[in-house]
Design a protein that fits this description.
Elements lengths: L1 E4 L5 H14 L3 E6 L4 H4 L7 E2 L4 H5 L9 E4 L4 H18 L5 E7 L15 H13 L6 E7 L4 H7 L7 E7 L2 E7 L10 H5 L2 E3 L1
Parallel strand pairs: 1-6, 1-7, 2-4, 2-5, 3-4, 5-6
Antiparallel strand pairs: 7-8, 8-9
Helix pairs in contact: 4-5
InterPro entries: P-loop_NTPase (IPR027417)
Protein name: P-loop containing nucleoside triphosphate hydrolase protein
Organism: Absidia repens
Length: about 200
């Protein structure tokens, strides 16, 4: 699923709420922090975090099986490529001691993707597609953020043809609102009243 909205609409905050809930239940999560926002939204002192100086070191296995959050912070295009081509091995290597419940991708990847502004191109989208392939082998939930404008037309254009549930995130006064938007391929016929009721306020 995807959290969609412009900057400042609470997407990272929502991820942090989900992550803290997972930690409270002692569930394992992989958190891929593309814009290095993790420390500003999740209290590192309250969370046991697996991290490494580089993504390469983390992929090589510098993790701790007793930790619940496995944090990857790529700094270069090569780091992101390392994730794309190394995550499958990481899952295999840790399948005996880590049962990953959530995989979260937060932020946009600016470096190598600055010339690929539309959906389906760039390293971030290759990473997302790779994780979707891995879901056939490991039953984790994938959630990622996407920064875009709040118009319905903009969202429909960005996610045309993608088979996933989307939450449009926006601010109403000081509250964070999430509106569920089912994929266009959904067989269920939603009425106008159904769609209005799909708004959650945090």
């Amino acid at each position: 699923m995807v959290l969609y909205g412009k900057s400042g609409t609470g997407k990272t905050y929502i991820l942090s709420r989900i992550l803290n809930d997972a930690i409270g239940q002692q569930l394992n999560a992989v958190y891929i922090d593309l814009e290095h926002q993790y420390g500003s939204t999740v209290a590192l002192s309250a969370v046991t975090v697996t991290t490494a100086a580089t993504t390469a070191a983390a992929m090589a296995g510098s993790t701790n099986q007793h930790k619940h959050v496995h944090l990857f912070r790529p700094c270069t295009d090569m780091d992101v490529l390392g994730l794309i081509y190394g995550l499958e091995k990481w899952f295999y290597d840790h399948s005996d001691d880590i049962n990953v419940t959530w995989v979260m991708i937060d932020g946009e990847w600016i470096l190598g993707d600055q010339h690929h502004g539309h959906q389906g191109q760039g390293l971030k989208w290759k990473l997302i597609e790779k994780l979707k392939q891995l879901q056939y082998h490991w039953p984790f939930a994938l959630i990622y953020t996407y920064r875009g404008n709040e118009t319905t037309d903009g969202a429909q254009k960005a996610f045309h043809g993608r088979q996933e549930y989307r939450f449009d995130c926006y601010k109403q006064d000081q509250a964070i609102c999430m509106k569920l938007v089912p994929p266009s391929s959904s067989n269920h016929a939603y009425s106008v009243d159904d769609l209005k009721s799909m708004v959650t306020i945090i």
